[in-house]
Amino acid sequence: QFRKKRLRFGRSRIHEWGLFAMEPIAADEMVIEYVGQNIRQVVADMREKRYAQQGIGSSYLFRVDHDTIIDATKCGNLARFINHCCT
């Protein structure tokens, strides 16, 4: 179990949009679950090309392991906007 963290969605200097922590979050704490469609690499490659052809500037493909990628581009949650920050 975990308590939902206070987060803010907005413009990011790193990559168009971002999700910002509004409170300190420890390295071992859960922030938010990355949600989307589980797909294979071959499907991810096709989707990446299709997204570019459609003019979708950002795709949100997150590699879980060698065989699994989560595509949150069209059916994800706010987790897709998380960018890392050293601070």
From TrEMBL:
Keyword Isomerase: no
The protein, known as: SET1A methyltransferase
Domain SET: 5-87
GO molecular function terms listed in the Swiss-Prot or TrEMBL record: histone H3K4 methyltransferase activity
Encoding gene (name): Setd1a
Biological process annotations from GO: methylation
Alphabetic keyword roster: Chromatin regulator, Methyltransferase, Nucleus, S-adenosyl-L-methionine, Transferase
Location in or out of the cell: Nucleus
Transmembrane residue ranges: none
Gene Ontology CC: one annotated term: Set1C/COMPASS complex
